[in-house]
Amino acid sequence: MTRPEQDTAGRAPAPVIQRLLGDPRVAQARLGKRIGRLPYFTRVESATGPITRMEGRDILNFGSNNYLGLANDPRVIAAAQEATARWGAGVTGSRLLNGNLALHEELEDALRRFYGRTGAMVFSTGYGANLGLMSSLLGRNDRAWVDEEMHASVLDGVWLARATMKRFGHNDPEHLLAQAKEDTASGLCVVEGVYSMRGDRAPLRRFLEVCRETRLALVVDEAHGLGTVGARGLGTVEEDGVVQDADFITITFSKSLGSCGGAIIGDKDQIEALRVLTRPFLFTAANTPASVAAALAALRILHEDPGLVAQLKERVRTLREALVARGLRPIPSDGPIVSVEVGADFDTLQAWRLLWNRGIYANPVIHPAVPAGHGLLRLSVMRTHEEQMVRTVADACADVFSDLQLSHEGRGKVAS
Questions:
Q1: Which PANTHER family match (predicted)?
Q2: CB 279 within 8 A of CB 96
Q3: 162: left (phi > 0), else alpha (psi -120 to 50), else beta?
């Protein structure tokens, strides 16, 4: 008979566990759960589409990164099913040993050709791609010049390398230049093509000029740019004409490609060096066959039908115009992330809750993901959203701002 579940009892927890349980963020999460305002770890009970089953309800979903709707495409699903039938549920090993399937190499070949580069390297996650690249390129005496709104995967990779991290103002290449030209240490600069919180794009051409002047390698994370920016969906590197000039481009499969995994794209000799030096690549299990096949199928669909990007952009334009028509001021961008500043953290969580009560899921972004007092409502647009869905969410956002007495510029008036 199975023993009943129970916590460890009869002894005091070790000091490291006491510290874990006493972290203020843990207490904050527990409080949020008790009062019904924790907007995280929402239970999803269906495939992620414009209408998604969450917590027992059908919700209008504006919080997903399934930008092109390919996670639900029958061709992508069929590819994942066929790969599982052929290759099995998992490879049960790292690519260094028994996990290097022909399927992984086929995806790498497709990625390098898609970007017109000579090398590509597939990882189990996009996080792992950034972690691996930073920790392999950098050493103790190097500098990593990082945008102040950079994703955690890059920051963690720099820490793993034990390099010195230098932060420059968001999307401010002149601030980078002013700092880097006074520092002769070797290093790199990392920016995102499309930033995940505000949805704004980096001025890559100018960043490239600064990097060439200061002899820094340029790394561009196109996690949110792939499939959403550029005529063919290569990202901001395509829009700004630096596909061949960026030293490395990193991507994830978990957004526009509707799967799970990530990759580094660059020159063949550099990729081959990374392949034997990158610990997060060498010592983790390879992607499941289903995830690789799904990403490959989605990439082929995007390559064959770049009109999908234009369709997404049209939906984004409709939402932005609808918000502006209702007096709101989304942060300027033409990418799939449409963010409206709310203000204080409490106001932001309240706004999220009011949208949820109306059957709409959005992402609340609060400190430390953004500076204190600059909380955001983050709306993610999918190509498969219908026009009426877009107008519905714009109406709801306008009502929420009115209910909470928030200004149209996104500065909270409700006491926090």
A1: CLASS II AMINOTRANSFERASE/8-AMINO-7-OXONONANOATE SYNTHASE, LD36009P
A2: no
A3: left
pLDDT score of 85 more than 60: yes
What domains lie within the chain, and their CATH numbers?
38-65+306-404 (3.90.1150.10), 73-304 (3.40.640.10)
Whether residue 381 contacts residue 338, with contact meaning beta carbons closer than 8 Å, is answered with yes
**Does 408 have pLDDT greater than 60?**
no
3 three-class SS: coil
Those residues with Cβ within 8 angstroms of residue 346's Cβ, 6 or more apart along the chain or in another chain:
414, 416
Phi, psi of 162 (to 5 degrees): 60, 30
The bridge status of strand 262-266 relative to strand 248-252 is antiparallel
> Which H helix or E strand runs over 378?
strand 375-380
Cα distance between residue 132 and residue 276, in whole Å: 11
The side-by-side arrangement of strands in the sheet containing 51-54 is 51-54, 57-61, 360-361
pLDDT confidence of residue 284: 95
Annotate 219-240 with b (16+ C-beta within 10 A) or e (fewer).
Answer: bbbbbbbbbbbbeebbbbbbbb
d(CA 120, CA 97): 19
- Give per-residue pLDDT as tens, 117-157: 999 999 999 999 999 999 999 999 999 999 999 999 999 99
**CA 218, CA 210: separation in Å to the nearest integer?**
10
Q: For residue 307, what are its two tokens? A: 């009109």
Which one of the listed residues 104, 224, 374, 385 is annotated catalytic?
A: 224
What does the alpha-carbon distance between residue 285 and residue 344 come to, in Å, rounded to a whole number? 41
Distance CA 247, CA 220 (A): 8
Out of 151, 255, 374, 385, the active site residue is 255
Burial class (CB in 10 A: 0-12, 13-18, 19+), 368: exposed
Which of the following is catalytic: 64, 124, 196, 339? 196
Catalytic residue list contains 181: no
Tens digit of pLDDT for each residue in 336-381? 999 999 999 889 999 999 999 999 999 999 888 888 899 999 999 9
Q: Give the C-alpha separation, 218 to 236, whole Å.
A: 14
| Residue 255 annotated in active site | yes
Is residue 196 annotated as part of the catalytic site, yes or no? yes
